Known about the structure:
This protein is of the alpha/beta class. It has helices spanning 6-13, 17-26, 37-51, 66-71, 87-97, 104-107, 144-152, 189-202; strands at residues 56-60, 79-84, 110-114, 129-133, 158-162. α1 runs antiparallel to α2. The radius of gyration is 19 Å and the shape is globular.
Amino acid sequence: xxxxDAEYIVKRYLRIPNLVxxxxxxxxxxxxxxxxxHDTRIDEAxxxxxxxxxxxxxxxxxxxxxxxxxxxxxSKFRKIVGIDPSLKSLKxxxxxxxxxNMKRSMRERIDFYQGSILYPDKRYAEFDTAVLLEVIEHxxxxxxxxxxxNIFRSGFNNxxxxxxxKEWNQTTENPNELRHKDHRFEWTRKEFQDWGEHICxxx
Length: 203
């Protein structure tokens, strides 16, 4: 712990946040544990959903069900359904939430089923709000017209979309690389805004 660059070395070689803090604590270095970016994103999404009076929500590309876990106990939301093309992710989400052992009131508000943003889904008619958290960057640009048609023509009252901010990459060790190997692109805030305005003009 006496090494002048001990904190940097630990952070450099232990990339997983929890391991970083465990390593620093083991060295006797006190560091305030920062909230994960994705946790912050989820919290902000919940605030927005409450403000827009979302009641029946479909979480498209739900992955491990982090949003579902956050809001299933919130009685302001009547129904939350997670959709994902991966059966493995859906099973993991169900297991993580331990749905079978939930209170009945919570269990009746939540469900998961397989589906893709690239295909029309009549079940969307059951929801007033669609959520896509960090999803669109996994879609090839040539497939965007399919996604736009399926989401923006489905009659949702609210559509909440987030995508990684390319400008933030400048704070990382590899500023010119995509954050995830499955990302097809990453946008600046201006590029995201331009796309949103394009969608609104075509609506």
